[in-house]
Amino acid sequence: MDNARKFDWNHIRAFLATAETGSLSAAARRLDQTQPTLSRQIAALESDLGVMLFERVGRSLQMTGAGVELLEHTRAMGSAADRIALAASGQVQSIEGQVRITASDIMSAYVLPDILRDIRAQAPRLQIDVIAANDIRDLLRREADIAIRHVRPDQPDLIAKLVQDATAHFYASTAYLQSNGYPKSKGDLSRHAFISFGDPDRMIEHFEPLGVHLTRDNFRLGSQSGIVAWEYVKQGFGIAPMSHEVGDSTPGVVRLLPETDAIRFPVWLTTHRELHTSRRIRLVFDLLAKHLSK
Amino acid sequence: MDNARKFDWNHIRAFLATAETGSLSAAARRLDQTQPTLSRQIAALESDLGVMLFERVGRSLQMTGAGVELLEHTRAMGSAADRIALAASGQVQSIEGQVRITASDIMSAYVLPDILRDIRAQAPRLQIDVIAANDIRDLLRREADIAIRHVRPDQPDLIAKLVQDATAHFYASTAYLQSNGYPKSKGDLSRHAFISFGDPDRMIEHFEPLGVHLTRDNFRLGSQSGIVAWEYVKQGFGIAPMSHEVGDSTPGVVRLLPETDAIRFPVWLTTHRELHTSRRIRLVFDLLAKHLSK
DNA sequence: AAACCCTTATACATTTACGTATGGATAATG
DNA sequence: CATTATCCATACGTAAATGTATAAGGGTTT
User: Which of B67, B123, B233, B241 supports an S-S bond with B63, CB 3.0-4.6 Å?
Assistant: First the structure.
């Protein structure tokens, strides 16, 4: 019947790459896939079309007459795909307007820059406003378009996506540790100085279930600004928790109790319903999701 | 970067079908897929390209300007795919030569016809010889090109593929059952007349582990030909095992002890190494594998 | 205005495809 | 002639895509 009319279009791409490079292994490298995958895809395509495309003669492949016959149309398909990519890229680059992102000051300063670089590359005409704030802004009142938060939003009108299950550890500067000693266990932490982000009482009750028992006496210095507090940690004033992504890449600061279980916190990407209609918000949302999901 | 240059080509087909039919559900029906699959594929394509293709407005989708822009190139890609299918179909139809298939006489008579019809439709110039034989032919001596067997071949030079784990049951004609009574349990079978395929002793020892205890006295009639023996069953001479595929589609014959576990036997498709180089053998082998795998 | 039909989006279980590791085979190299 | 390197095919565990079931949102009809 019209059995041959349903084949996997990706297999055509595999055939094209194999024909142009001359081997399955080279095609796999070009397509960022593995050689067994290409091997199976070509075999499946041959089976679907009912035609042999290559003769396996020792180590190298030789294209059959049928393969040559199909190659021309395959090239046409490939160039159409290239034109789609090109046109889409042009559409993206023409996107303009404003998108406001709100995130914690820590994330705004230390995590977002790499992502913003990619956004800039893809849509140079877009204007991004980063609202660095540790209190939660109201998306429904359009104080921002996209929010990066660590709690799930309660309003059902918002679109929320859990993009990461991040981990945090305790960090301190080497200078601090040389003066005050290295804590060997969770119990040792109670004798150390901590830097608070925001309300110390909330930090105390947050660490309690983890087996880290602190009191207000441990918090002699702090700031509502995460960046400022982290600066105090770098300067050797004490210990503070930090996401491993930021902590591990800060020079002069080391992770404490590395064998202890990490502190886990979720990362939620939130936006209002306009995501479904606005190209620019959609673009930024997708790129944020891609990068934050690692 | 050139992020948009790597997208799933099948998603382009999904976009094309959605654009031409006007809805995800209709596109899913055209492509023999489900609506959630299409929904995800379009969403993934939009994310990969960084462009919104449709606006979700109530029940119907409306294409965006970006979608219209890409549609033209998408059509080009689709028509190239159609030309590939057409050219491949032409290549298949031009395949000619002889292919010899060996199988049991039962399978040759009752199972192969439907498959042969498909082979004929795809490659009308192919000459198929079916060697109906219940003894095993030697493929290495080229007595046949492809063998359908119920045991795994021992020669390592052969290519073997397990295509099915078939099931068989006991069958008898309604006329026989009205005269001799319906067996209610495996034990009842010992009091009935059986028709033998080939050697009765081998059948006896084959049924022993299944809890069906027979002696030579149960076999008063038989034939080395499966078709002839099955004819005797239809004529009411006794009981015989038969694959459910054949048994269930034979009028006037019913399955005994339906709640009893089925008799299981494997179906192996075997060919010589020429499979890798011969288009016609490859074609027939793949079609047999497709149909026999259900 | 209520009921219905058709649409799209989400949650979960299953199937499918993929990557890693390995074996076999052939051509190029010392 | 042995050795190395490169290529393709197969086996198996894992990750991704698919299908089923279900909910929710709009139009259309009664």
Answer: B67
